[in-house]
Structure formats: structure tokens, C-alpha cells
Amino acid sequence: MSPTTTSPTTGRSFLGLSPALLWGYVAIAFFMTGDGLEQAFLSDYLVTHAGFTTAQTGSIFTVYGLIVALGAFASGVLAEYFGPRRVMILATIMWIVFHVGFLYFGVMQGDFAMTLVMYAIRAAAYPMFVYSFVVWISYAAPGDRLSSAMGWFWCFYSIGVGVFGSYLPSLTIPWIGEIATLWASIAFIAVGGLLAGLLVRGRGPEQHGPRTLAGLLGVLTETLVMPVRNVQLAYGMIQRIINQISLYGFIVMLPIVFVRDLGFAQGTWLKLWSLVYLVTVFTNLLWGVLGDRIGWVRTVRWFGAIGMCAATLLLYFVPVIFGPNPWLTAAAVVVFGFALAAYVPLSALMPALEPHRRGSAVALLNLAAGLSQFIGSLMVTLLWDRIGTTGTVIALAATYLVSFGLSFLQKVDQRALAQDAGAPAASPAAATAGEAAGR
């Protein structure tokens, strides 16, 4: 079986959901369920049970975020060059192997160094899996429905990491405990890997000639200079970095702040955090479809940037002012989930800016997504002890004002880009060969 079929995607789509890619979306949900089981309780567990300090825990998540950024970038290039299916299978194996090391040699032994190293190496596997599928979508989805197709991706992503990933621990932890819950995540990862390896169809990057290290380095170098050559790619990357800064900052902060400082029960907190992703299940698709209709940049500017600035403040200050009231806090969570997803059109904008190098454009988007996790965690690590929780939250919210201003520099002809994106595209190597032949 070839890593990626190059035949055009067939079958009618439903709001941009292609039947050929359906099992890939389901694979994303399973994989991210496994990866997300730890999200809402791991930082608190490392402090209260494994014996790590808050600074050590912050360092673990910061290094994790940095490796995610590098893995996210590599995933686009590798998927373009070797095919998404192969990269997704490799990522599944990596995740399982190093998760075992993370738990057995690190967390269960209370060994900070092993926890840091194993968790960091495992970090590369998650972006390699999920963002390789984004490359697949960028080739297989119709150009005029690309934002909608990406909306479906983030919809299934949220079903996994947030709905099941965040909600299931509220059921399993009282029953089997935190460590057993972390071990159980392997089953979800394995199912996701099997689905991606066996059942996904749809057009992908065309493979031309043997895959060599020199060729891979050429694609990598070309990808790195693309934002210099096309400044709109650089603007899109910055927007994607800002997108989830508060989300990943909150992953480090809020499990501790809500439970220890604000008085929420752990089960209540877990349900509230899962609600963020339950909301994005619908809003990812909503903003993807609306982005195709009202404009990709306009959606990001007004509903993403302004929305996230307000939502970041609300999610913290509502429980601070009104106490551990789950209903009022849930309302703030819903606003946060709505605004967070309004950056979905960036997933359509970036590959559309480079229709002949879509995988490379997605690699840049992936790098930005990983940097979002790194910078969000880093901001908390650097600021929390220095300016306190309130100051850190305000700093996170302020980044979205930068996003708002930057959106006015994003000059794109969405209709023309969508038409270009709908045309078949070769891999960067093939595109370069075509350019050489034309010179």
C-alpha cells in the first residue's frame, strides 16, 4: 500500500467533510483522546503526588511545548516528503514507546530528569500524527471548502482532546486513579494509529523519485525561507502562535489555581475544562464554514482576536469575583471556547497562500501551533512567580490585541486563493522541477 493515494478525492462531501478522509478524522479523535487524558490533571498531579515543585512542573511543560513546536514543523515536511500515512504510523509507535518510559521511569519513580526527557521525546509524536493529517486534508479537500474541511479537523480534534480527553478522567480517576488513567491512554493511541494506517483514502502529495536525505534537506531549507519570500505566511504564523497562548498557559496554571486557590473540587474543574472542548466541537466547524463565507481574516480579527482577549479575562476573573460558582464559570468557559475556535480559517489560509507547496505551508502553520504551546507555557513559567496569577492572566490577554492589529496587515484575495487551492498540486520537489523546466 502506498503511503498516500494520489487519486482525486471522490464522493460528495457534507459541509466540507470528505468521505475519503472520514476515518482520518475519527483517527484524530481517538489519538487526541489518548493524548488529552492527562491535560486537565497532570500538572496538579506532578506537584501534589510526584513531589515536583511548581517551577519544575512549569519547566516540564515548557520543554514539552518547545519539542511540540519542532515536531509540528517537521510533521509537515515529513508528510510532504514521505507521505502522511507513514508519518502517522511512525508517530503512533513513538508515542506509545516514550509514554511507557515517561510513566515507568519518570513519574512513578518521582524522577524529574527522566520525566522531563521522556515527556519531551513523546511530545514530538502528537504533532507528527495530527498535523500530518492536516497536510492530507490540504491536498484532498476541495479548495472552496478548505476552511470547512479544516473546521472538521479541529472539530474531531476537540472531541478527542477535550470532550473525551478531559471528561473521561473525571470518571476514571475516582475509580482507578491517576496513574492507571495515564496507562489507559495507550489504548486510544493504538486505535487511532490503526485507523490512520489502514482506512484513510484521498489524494495526497505526489511522490516523484526516491526519497533521499539531500532531497529532504532541500525541502526543509525551502520551507524555512518561505515566510521571508511571502510575508503573508509570516503574518499567518504569528496569528497562529497567538491563537492558543492563553489555552496552553491555562493548562499549566488553572488546574492549580482553580483547585488549590479558588476552591473548586477536582471533578468540577475537570468537567469545566472539558466544556471548553465540547464547545469547540461545534464552533470549530461553525467558524470554518463562516470563514468561507464572511472572510478568513475578518473572522480571525473580530471573533478570534477581540473574542479571546475578552474570554481570557472572563475565564479567570469570573470565579475570582463570584467564587467557585460552576454555572457562572461555565458561561465564561463557553465564551472562551467560541473565541478560541475563531482562528480556524488560518488552517485554510496558509496552504492557500502556497498552492504548489501546501505541505510546506502547513509545516509553517504547524510550527506556529507548536510555538503557541511553548510560548504559552513559557509565559506562565517566567511570569507567574514574578507578577502573580492576575498579572499573568492580563499578560496572556494582551497578546490578542497584537493579533487584532496584525490582522490589518493581512491582505489576501480569498476567492482567488480558494480557486488556486482547488487545483491539483505537486510536492515541493515536483514543483521545483516544473519551475526549472519552465526557465
Report on the architecture of this protein.
With 439 residues, the chain is mainly alpha-helical. The chain has a single domain, classed as MFS general substrate transporter like domains (Growth Hormone, Chain: A). Helix 3 crosses helix 16 and helix 7 packs antiparallel against helix 12. The radius of gyration is 21 Å and the shape is globular. The N terminus and C terminus are likely disordered.
Strand content: under 5%
Which fold name corresponds to the CATH topology? Growth Hormone, Chain: A
N-to-C CA distance: 36 Å
CATH class call: Mainly Alpha
Query: How many extended strands?
Result: 0
Q: What is the second-level CATH architecture?
A: Up-down Bundle
- Estimate the global geometry from the Cα principal axes: globular
Assembly category: single chain
Please indicate the count of domains.
Answer: 1
CATH superfamily: MFS general substrate transporter like domains
Rg for CA atoms: 21 Å
Contiguous uncertain segments of 5+ residues: 1-10, 424-439
Major sheet characteristics:
none
Structural class, by secondary structure, is mainly alpha
Put simply, the count of helices is 18
The helical percent reads over 70%
H/E element order: HHHHHHHHHHHHHHHHHH
| Average predicted local confidence, pLDDT | 86
